[in-house]
Write a structure and sequence with these properties.
eight-stranded antiparallel beta barrel; alpha+beta; 532 residues; 21 strands; 25% helix; 36% strand; six-stranded mixed sheet
């Protein structure tokens, strides 16, 4: 009688509770209608229309309806639609969602083509293999925890960068396991244990293996625990091989007393734990079980379910302190540097000009060719923002001439002369400059960027030209000048406030006087600049 009453109570409670957790009748009806429409479109090879219907059905496919007959079918139809549209990754994910709800969900016979059947079967096989590996992984972790005396891992992230609790004691000449957890935010890719295996103060780095998401484990052999006191410290490194966290240091390492074991003392686990990087192999596991020396081979495993809990000991070696200091002086992103206002640049280089007509002093006829000159320049301007500037360029050039050139005295009144053997020129150009975003050079504070611009101005230009077998004369050009320029700069600071530059200028002059125009003048300039 009592048993009957219990059954009736369960049935009554089920009838009361289930409606709140079941798919609403209206949703079921709508999902059934969408299911029939999607199947009809798929049979007619109208895949885009079927995809739109699947998308529209999502508002009725609530969490309580996903496991319903019509909800499951629609999830499967979603995968079939994606497969038909050749979205194979999306289709694979959709089918996996179906298998999570019902692993033996059959494929719709009306739509099952040979290619679809093969794909569906392949995804199911991969999903089952994933489940099997996950179960094996959990078993391996459990075996490791039992063999090494480790607690289960907690799910939460550790509160400190590197969480470690040293053992209170151990036994000399017997295996000993060291384990720790690292915090997600430090992005550690490697954890090393620096162990003094000989007891002489010489710490040898030993790599710890990852077992789980945040836990790292090192199994020391009996030979490595043959000292009265085991001393060690732990350090975590990021992908750039820089230390990011530590527990203990070389000056104050962790110290675990190792007593001489009593033969009758079985309080210490003597099972040898070997952590390998090889994949799971059932044959190796069977061999390990039959090993008379009782050696359990625990392979490296990763799992997202269980993490260990341990006491927290925080210590920083000198290496970590140096690394933190370096991080304080780290490269500042260009976008976070002070907004510049002034641009200043200076440079020196050579010039080449396409000359024709006649020479300046002797009026000797010149065939079209190239003349040479030297150039210095200074540029100052206003930075509109980090990437745009308006500047004024002043250039002074000089071209070599023969000192005994006839008529040289006529230039002394209109030229600034460095020596009697040079003719000089000056020009001013108003320019617009556009800079690119700096590209950082490795892990240094230096970067590089390119720039380009256009400009317009006026002045004159001279180039050295031969004027017969005995004399070097000059070719003269003046008038309105159009300028285009481009180059690259090496930024010595993160804000590019100090930089080295290489620049190529193109300038053409247009004059009202016959023979006084020049179609091309090129400057190749090396210089330095400041942006502040």
């Amino acid at each position: 009688m009592k048993r009957t009453l219990q059954i009736m109570l369960v049935i009554a409670l089920t009838g009361i509770i289930n409606p709140a957790f079941s798919c609403p009748k209206k949703n079921k009806q709508k999902l059934r209608e969408f299911k029939m429409k999607v199947i009809e479109k798929l049979e007619g090879y109208e895949f885009l229309e079927a995809s739109k219907l699947v998308e529209d059905s999502k508002k009725f496919l609530t969490d309580t309806c996903r496991a319903d007959e019509h909800g499951l079918t629609l999830l499967q139809l979603k995968g079939i639609t994606e497969f038909s549209l050749k979205k194979f990754n999306d289709a694979r994910n959709s089918f996996i969602e179906v298998f999570k709800l019902k692993i033996d969900m059959p494929l719709n016979d009306r739509l099952a083509t040979p290619r679809l059947k093969a794909f569906y079967s392949g995804v199911l096989s991969q999903y089952k293999l994933t489940l099997k590996k996950k179960a094996e992984t959990k078993a391996k972790i459990k075996a490791l925890e039992d063999a090494a005396g480790m607690p289960e891992e907690p799910k939460e992230n550790p509160a400190v960068p590197l969480e470690h609790s040293p053992r209170e004691k151990g036994f000399r000449g017997r295996p000993l396991t060291v384990f720790c957890r690292v915090k997600d935010e430090i992005k550690a890719t490697q954890v090393l244990a620096f162990v003094d295996t000989a007891g002489k103060g010489a710490f040898k780095p030993l790599e710890m293996k990852k077992v789980g998401i945040r836990r790292y484990v090192l199994s020391l052999t009996g030979k490595q625990t043959s000292t009265p006191v085991l001393r060690y410290y732990l350090m975590a490194f990021n992908a750039a091989k820089k230390p990011v966290a530590a527990s203990g240091n070389s000056a104050t390492p962790h110290a675990v007393p190792l007593a001489i074991p009593d033969e009758k003392d079985s309080s210490e686990n003597t099972t040898k734990v070997v952590i390998k990087d090889t994949p799971i192999d059932d044959k190796k596991d069977d061999k390990a079980k039959k090993d008379p020396k009782d050696k359990k081979i625990i392979e490296q495993v990763e799992d997202d379910d269980k993490l260990e809990r341990a006491k927290v000991i925080v210590d920083e070696p000198d290496e970590i302190k140096k690394a933190k200091k370096a991080m304080n002086d780290k490269y500042v992103e260009f976008s976070k540097t002070p907004l510049p206002v002034i641009y200043v640049g200076i440079g020196f280089g050579i010039s080449i000009g396409l000359v024709s007509g006649e020479s300046e002093a002797l009026h000797s006829p010149l065939d079209t060719g190239f003349g040479m000159a030297m150039t210095t320049q200074a540029e100052i301007g206003y930075m509109m923002d980090r990437l745009n500037a308006f500047t004024v360029l002043f250039q002074m050039g000089w071209a070599s001439t023969s000192t005994d050139l006839p008529g040289i005295e006529q230039y002394s009144t209109n030229d600034f002369l460095f020596t009697s053997g040079y003719r000089n020129d000056m020009r001013f150009i108003l320019r617009y400059k556009r800079f690119s975003m700096p590209e950082r050079l490795g892990s240094t504070k230096m970067s590089w960027r390119y720039f380009w611009g256009i400009g317009m101005g006026g002045g004159n230009m001279r180039h050295q030209v031969p004027a017969g077998p005995e004399y070097n004369d000059t070719h003269f050009s003046s008038g309105l000048m159009l300028n285009g320029h481009g180059g690259a700069m090496l930024c010595l600071t993160s804000s590019c406030s100090f930089n080295l530059q290489f620049e190529v200028d193109y300038t053409a002059s247009f004059s009202m006087e016959d023979g006084n125009s020049m179609p091309m003048h090129l400057d190749f300039i090396l210089g330095a600049g400041m942006i502040f």
